[in-house]
Amino acid sequence: MCRLIIVSLFVLSNSFLFSTSSISSFYNSSLCHPHDASALLHFKHSFSIFNDTSYRDCDYNLGASRILSWKNGTDCCTWGGVTCDKVTGNVIQLNLHCGQLRGIIHSNNTLFFLRHLRSLDLSYNDFSGSQLLANFGRFTSMRHLNLFHSSFDGQVPQEISYLSQLLSLDLSGNPNLKLETWSLQRTTANLTNLKELRLCFVNMSFVQIHSLMNLSSSLTSLDLSYSGLQGKFPEKIFLLPNLQVLSLSYNQNLTGFFPKSNWSTSPIRELTLSRTAFSIDMSYLVRNLKFLNGLYLRTCTFIRSYPPLVMAGNLSKITLLDLSFNNFDGHIPWNIFLNLQQLISLDLSGNNFVGQLPETCTNNSNQISFLCDSSQHQLLDHVPMNLEYLDLSSNNLNGTIPSWLYSLPFLKHLGLASNQFIGTIQEFHYASLSYLNLEGNKLHGAIPVSVFQQQNLTSLALGGNNLSGAISLDQFSKLKNLEYLSLSYNNLSLSFNNSDNYTFPNLKYLLLSSCNISEFPYFLRASEYLFLLELSQNKIQGNIPKWLWNVGVDTLVFLNLSHNLLTGHVPEQLPWKYLFTFDIRSNFIQGHLPIPPPSTHFYFLSNNQLFGEIPSLICALTYIDFLDLSHNALNGSIPLCLGNLSYLLVLDLRMNMLDGTIPTTFSKGNSLINIALNGNRLKGPLPRALLNCRHLEILDVGNNMINDTFPQWLESLPNLQVLVLRSNKFHSSISSPNVRFPFQKLRIMDLSNNLFQGLLPTGYFGNFSAMMHDGRVDKLEYMGEDHSYYYQDSATVTMKGFEVSFEKILKIFMTIDFSKNNFEGEIPEAVGILKSLKGFNLSHNKLYGHIPTSLRNLNNLEWLDLSSNYLYGEIPMQLLEMTSLEVLNLSQNHLEGAIPSGNQFDTFRNDSYIGNLGLCGFPLTKTCGDDEAQQPSPSANDDEEATNGFQWKYVYMGYGSGLVIGMSVGYMFYSDERLTCLMRKVGGGRWLKLL
């Protein structure tokens, strides 16, 4: 009775209202203390249970069912996840791992009433907004505390050090947790019995590294990876007498060396130093760590570059080896790895290995299968039949995939992506795979039947090959665990017949670009947790189905339906809460502009039939990076607030019907790199607020009605590479530069079809630094690819007489176009220093004087148009040195004398010289010295084409080359429709046969 009174008083003191009779009845029939039961029930009701399958390590049915089993009036010692002391009845263990709890743990939470807890596991729950409270220090009997991946934040309190009996502490996976030096020092000093300490992803960036010196000598496992540690790691920790597992990975500023003595008896069996700045002597490491079976050295710094692989042969006990992304090259030393007879996991991805994989060969005397390395002419060891994990992705391996890889009975993970493998995919002998990635090779043929029998498969990636055949959804029916499926960019034809019968409940990533799909995959209607959907470049017609707007409302972050045949409208408010990328480019979508959620970073709606004004709500996208609304029928003015979006990189509003003026509100510190407003009805001057765009690389305002003088003030923008002002009402002369290095990075300058006058800007020609190098490059790069894998910069310029929209711009593409203005005077000799120029157009001006001989230095120039001016004198013989010249137009001038003969000049036709009555020689009929010879009278068509530059039926002529106009060097990527249109326009039907 005394005990009952004490219990009752305790309960009342904590605001628990129990009647004496109910407590007595409950206590008499239960082992569990009533105050523990009540505390647990109150704890349960302080949280909601959410449905999230994003954690692979969770059994959600088991996790949620634990806490759902807690019922009032039952013995709490029988509840799921609850363990009681059999003598006292106190709750001593609470396991809510993967319980799917969501809510905040406040300081008065009844969890802290369970004072006898020895083990607490709250891992894989969502306590966002919860501080790691000092109250956790009340569990003085605690031996195991696991808060892994539970979304705690704030400082790790020093009261954790009160848990002096702790054997294991896991605070990992809480990136908003911060651990300071003072708290770590107290914790390491008091937790002298600690065996396991895991602080992965806890922010320790301000921890003084020496505070780790007092770690418990009892430690068997220490995980400090992804914690932001800096400085020199104490060698003493390597010498801890019981330490078996040490992970320091992904602390990029953490340096250190291995101990120089007393290390040969180290019990370390798993060592992870990936992406640290340790200086690793592999030979010393393997001589000392006798018990090592797991070694992870991804992206490391080795004292010797290639010997690490040679010395790996001494790791006789190794089972797990990761040497990925270390720039190792040459052939893979298979003879070393195959000697590691216990090896079950090998990761050599992200290196520069070459050659073929060894194939199986048989010893004729005993019929035992070995591996033969044909490149090294070696007989290797037995086939590694115990391999479970093999990743050789992102190397330069070639040849066929060897047959022995298909016969490994325990193989779960096979990664061969981004190599140059050829041949077909053979049948797998076992259904053991959970991960198969063969993307980015040159494999052909059908997908083998055995792939569809891999019932444990969670990830299947076959995109970017030449696989062929018809695939129907029912072939995937056994792959119920599939989370990632990529078949994009093959020659497959995928159909969804009878898809009503199939669902993939775990599917999160679906990539089916360019799969000849003609309908939406209806099975997605039940994909509640879809994260990424990629259906671009297919043949899907009709309206977007209504059920799609309900798919992945709480999970979808990436949706790409671009380059299809979709029609109809989309909702004015997109439903996905956490959408990051929305891409419906190149369809026939109509209606007003839909508004995405604030989380959106990539927003692409170009090449549709959208109309109406751009709503000011678009400015609620505070994190938007890329906004592309080009090639629609949008009208009205540009919202002023767009200039205030601090993260916006690309603003592309080309080819609409926008009017008014360009916003004057570009704020200081903005991130804009590309402003494309070409092809609208914009008026007024160019706003000087553009000077605030210090990162600007492309400014394209061509084909508008802008009325202004030359924006000389733009010359100070440090990163400007493309300036397109063509076809506006710009006027006045261009004076000398005002800064020392004007337009120092400019690659494309198009001022054509304006009202500029006066002399050509010699001061600028002499300072275009980016155009002065010799044009040689190690690799082709596109503008904009530095900013995103998903976007390349574009612009509209005149190329060899045609206005062309570039979908990608090569960095080597450099042009100057001042045509169709009123410039006068002579062409300056300074032009000759612009050695990188590909195109130079001064046509339709009032220039006079001689053609400068300095043009001979433009060895990269492919087209030169000086037509319709008042140039006189002879064509300089030095122009024969321009061996890259493919197109020349000198028509409608006053040139005279002999046309140079040889090299490129032997390929140019009459149209290049028409209207120069004093010229003679090939290709004209007027021979030099023959005053009687007459040039053929131009036809009406000739006159018409001459006004546009020259006759384009001869454009395709080039010295030692066939079809040119820049496609051979890949300046841009045309869509099929644009390319067909261009060929029809410039070459007639005969070129269409070549497409």
From TrEMBL:
Membrane topology: Single-pass type I membrane protein
Annotated localization: Cell membrane
UniProt-listed InterPro entries: Leu-rich_rpt (IPR001611), Leu-rich_rpt_typical-subtyp (IPR003591), LRR_dom_sf (IPR032675), LRR_N_plant-typ (IPR013210), RLP23-like (IPR046956)
Bilayer-spanning residue ranges: 954-974
Signal sequence range: 1-22
Pfam hit, one: LRRNT_2
Gene Ontology CC terms: plasma membrane
Domain named Leucine-rich repeat-containing N-terminal plant-type: residues: 33-85
Keyword line: Cell membrane, Glycoprotein, Leucine-rich repeat, Membrane, Receptor, Repeat, Signal, Transmembrane, Transmembrane helix
Family in the record: Belongs to the RLP family.
PANTHER family for this protein: LEUCINE-RICH REPEAT RECEPTOR PROTEIN KINASE EMS1-LIKE-RELATED, LEUCINE-RICH REPEAT-CONTAINING N-TERMINAL PLANT-TYPE DOMAIN-CONTAINING PROTEIN
Protein name: Leucine-rich repeat-containing N-terminal plant-type domain-containing protein
Native organism taxonomy: Eukaryota, Viridiplantae, Streptophyta, Embryophyta, Tracheophyta
